[in-house]
């Protein structure tokens, strides 16, 4: 078996002038340097994500759940992932609607898989967004990782595509070590027995 885990890094913001791709690019570099992951960056700005959902939720519709054709690449990326890193800003003490819609269009794709968070924002560094995401993804039977990364006042804390905090790479390694451990444990468990959702 390949020792590497498939990691989907999700760029959660689609706002004009967003900073998310800068953060996601740095996170992807950290994940590649870690060596435990095959990295796939999934930018929600490149995906068709309607806000109107079908009547039956994906939990009950199963394989027959109809998604827009423009969402196929996103669904495939989520299906293939052994682990996720969600990169999110904080909008009004929560996370973007684009991210909520992308989550709500799926269900089994998150089940029994680990999710880590990298957030950015003002004084709180996006932590309010992460708290809300932890509740939502727990409902979908994902496993949220304790050690995340938060970048307060990102507009002054980054330069040339990198955080100015010299310890940021060390924090990223801790996040990635925990994510790799959970990815391996949960992948093995999913292969051994179906998750009782």
Condensed summary:
The chain is an alpha/beta fold. Helices cover 40% and strands 19% of the residues. Strand 3, helix 4 (97-104) and strand 4 form a beta-alpha-beta unit.
Number of DSSP-assigned strands:
8
How would a crystallographer describe the biggest sheet? 6 strands, parallel
Span of the ends, CA to CA: 26 Å
Mean pLDDT: 95
- Low-confidence segments, given as residue ranges, are none
Helical fraction equals 25-40%
**Fraction of residues in β-strands:** 15-25%
The helix count comes to: 7
Assembly form of the protein = single chain
The H/E string reads EHEHHEHEHEEHEEH
Q: Which of globular, elongated, flat, extended, rod-shaped describes the shape?
A: globular
Radius of gyration: 16 Å
Structural class by SSE content? alpha/beta
Sequence-ordered SSE layout with sheet pairings:
Elements (H helix, E strand, L loop, with lengths): L4 E7 L8 H15 L2 E7 L14 H4 L10 H9 L2 E7 L7 H8 L9 E7 L6 H13 L3 E2 L4 E3 L2 H4 E2 L2 E2 L4 H25 L5
Parallel strand pairs: 1-2, 1-3, 3-4, 4-5, 4-6
Antiparallel strand pairs: 7-8
